[in-house]
Amino acid sequence: NGRLGVGCSASIFDSKKEKVLLVRRADNGKWAVPGGYMEAGESFSEACKREVIEETGLEVNINRLIGIYTSPNLLLEYSDGNKWQLVVFHFDAELVSGEFKPSEETTEFGFFSLSAINVLDMNGLDRKRVLDGFAGLQNAIINDDFDI
């Protein structure tokens, strides 16, 4: 059995809403949306903004919720033996300021079109969040049992 881990992530689009910001993870080399775990005492927006700054050096405003993702049948297992069922809140965010700075978690970043994303090395949950962000639906998407 695992524990619950609550995370926040962001789709940050360019000014024309044609490309989305992705970061390359230092741990596995895959492309991902910026985000990470919430800390006690934070709101969703605060956690999302903090994670984006930590991973990219960029400051964002949170506009709206794109979707919520979890699966009771999918546990993330770390090398230390901890198992987590993720509950991820994915937000549409707007770039405010800053300059990209790689971190311990990220090695590079880029803005990618939908067609370019199709060929990037990404895990399934990151790809799903990106596609849901591009879909631009007004109502939040509830994903409570998926496979990646």
What would you say this structure looks like, in words?
By secondary structure, the chain is of the alpha+beta class. Helix content is 20%, strand content 43%. The chain has three helices and nine strands. A hairpin with a 5-residue loop joins β2 and β3.
What are the main properties of this structure?
20% helix; 6-stranded mixed sheet; 148 residues; globular; 3-stranded antiparallel sheet; single chain; alpha+beta; 3 helices; 9 strands
Quick summary:
This protein has 3 helices and 9 strands; from the N terminus they run ββββαββββααβ.
Query: Ranges with pLDDT <50 over ≥5 residues?
Result: none
Q: Which range best describes the helical content: under 10%, 10-25%, 25-40%, 40-55%, 55-70% or over 70%?
A: 10-25%
Structural class of the secondary elements?
A: alpha+beta
Instruction: Summarize the helix and strand pattern as letters.
Output: EEEEHEEEEHHE
- Please count the helical segments: 3
The Cα radius of gyration reads 14 Å
- Give the overall average pLDDT: 92
Number of strands: 9
Q: What proportion strand? A: 35-45%
Give the terminus-to-terminus CA distance. 19 Å
The biggest sheet amounts to: 6 strands, mixed
Shape: globular
